[in-house]
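ok new one. same drill as before - structure tokens go in, u give me an amino acid for every spot. 468 of them this time. try not to just spam alanines like last time pls lmao
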């Protein structure tokens, strides 16, 4: 699984401009998107640098010097195979009769194809180079409203009425930085301030890196307008529920981030604690699949009263392995990425913690690596409940048929991955660990029940229109 995107927007009074700060902010958000990146700034005119690759690979000093201005937005993107191309890199910049709009987006618009078809039917053709993202759609919808109303907040509000899905947006007009979060708050977005800058970002870790005070989360349904006069909040949508993505807490967000007021590390540690308190397996030590499962394993170790030890060492210089040409090469790449500590695992009974089991193939390979290294038993513990349904609100997941839990019982999965025992976290314990109830979380990938109406749109969705 992969998160789709990370966004940042900065408005500053500093004469040094914003490009270097946005660069470091995107670097801090690199885990949210690793295929393309981009920055747009404004100093009386718009400047954009964007392309494929990691933040430090694509940007250099010359490109950052070209990005002049005291306000700007940045974006990191993670697409699926076949959708990774320069045309889809963000931010998008759309010129219209009354000015220019630049936009970056994290999320997924479920009814994107329907909205796009209506625009094209009305004569608003999408210009070349063509993109297949819903972000361009959002930009053109907002521009269409703004040209008529000349009120940007009213224009955004009108477009929000039509969008079904998840979105955290950062936008630049000719004189303002604007941040928008969908009415359910599905994807994260937060606000920070220093003496001379106002910053919005996908995660609070950006503020730590930039030494900026974390102020608050952007509220679900809120529109923030930031300019030389300060920031002004508009909240045209206040629903009686929220739907924060549970996977931000379990896996996607950095453990040092705070999402909607909840420290991510504490949630993961609590998940491990809940597992450890209810587990009765006999084991010599608990070990994480590095690095995401470390807090789970630490919480488990304290609760269960057994040692915490590393059994796998991660090679952090190994890139993506799924593009390798044959199965044998992919197997070797997994062993290159995770190497067992033979001296630690030989003859031992291990509780192995991972954040999730998706297809089950990686879990099976890791268990086999440990057993080949001499582990006597490997008991798999998972930091979230079984993933049974495709996420349709901004996370790249395999199809339902590829999800191992979609048609297999826990015992069948245990046999499939070769574990001596297998236990998932329950949905009740997940909510307890996060500290939010069913009416405050999106649990669609676990239950098949989504917080927005999806079923009636699925019959007209095409793959190219469900990618951010």
């Amino acid at each position: 699984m992969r998160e789709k995107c990370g966004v940042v927007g900065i408005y500053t009074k500093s004469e040094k401009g914003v490009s270097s700060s946005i660069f470091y902010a995107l670097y801090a958000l690199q885990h949210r998107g690793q295929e393309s990146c981009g920055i747009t700034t404004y100093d009386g005119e718009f400047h954009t640098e964007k392309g494929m690759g990691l933040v430090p690979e694509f940007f250099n000093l010359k490109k950052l010097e070209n990005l002049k201005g005291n306000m700007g937005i940045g974006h990191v993107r993670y697409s699926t195979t076949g959708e990774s191309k320069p045309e889809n890199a963000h931010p998008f910049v759309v010129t219209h009769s009354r000015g220019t709009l630049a936009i970056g987006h994290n999320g997924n618009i479920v009814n994107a194809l329907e909205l796009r078809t209506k625009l094209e039917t009305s004569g608003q053709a999408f210009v070349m180079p063509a993109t297949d993202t819903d972000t361009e759609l959002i930009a053109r919808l907002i521009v269409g409203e703004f040209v008529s109303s000349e009120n940007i907040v009213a224009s955004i509000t009108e477009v929000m009425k039509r969008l079904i899905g998840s979105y955290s947006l950062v936008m630049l007009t000719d004189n303002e930085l604007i941040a928008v979060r969908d009415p359910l708050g599905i994807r994260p977005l937060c606000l920070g301030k220093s003496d001379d800058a106002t910053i919005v970002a996908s995660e609070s870790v950006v503020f730590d890196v930039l030494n900026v005070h974390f102020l608050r989360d952007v509220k679900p349904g809120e529109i923030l307008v930031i300019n030389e006069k300060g920031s002004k909040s508009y909240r045209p949508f206040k629903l009686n529920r929220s739907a924060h993505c549970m996977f931000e807490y379990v896996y996607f967000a950095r453990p040092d981030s705070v999402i909607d007021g909840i420290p991510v590390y504490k949630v993961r540690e609590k998940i491990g604690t809940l597992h450890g308190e209810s587990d009765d397996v006999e084991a010599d030590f608990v070990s994480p699949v590095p690095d995401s499962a470390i807090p789970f394993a630490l919480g488990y170790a304290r609760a269960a009263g057994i040692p915490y030890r590393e059994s796998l060492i991660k090679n952090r210089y190994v890139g993506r392995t799924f593009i390798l040409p044959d199965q044998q090469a992919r197997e070797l790449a997994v062993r290159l990425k995770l190497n067992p500590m033979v001296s630690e695992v030989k003859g031992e009974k291990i509780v192995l913690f991972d954040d999730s089991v998706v297809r089950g193939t990686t879990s099976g390979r890791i268990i086999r690596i440990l057993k080949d290294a001499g582990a006597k038993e490997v008991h798999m513990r998972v930091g979230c409940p079984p993933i049974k349904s495709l996420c349709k609100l901004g996370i790249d997941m395999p199809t339902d048929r590829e999800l191992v839990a979609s048609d297999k019982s826990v015992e069948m999965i245990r046999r499939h991955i070769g574990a001596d025992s297998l236990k998932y976290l329950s949905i009740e314990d997940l909510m307890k660990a996060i500290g939010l109830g069913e009416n405050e979380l999106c649990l669609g990938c676990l239950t098949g029940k989504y917080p927005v109406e999806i079923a009636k749109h699925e019959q007209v969705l095409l793959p190219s229109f469900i990618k951010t």
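Confidence is low (pLDDT under 50) at residues 320-325, 458-468. and btw The domain at 266-436 is CATH 3.40.50.2020 (Rossmann fold).
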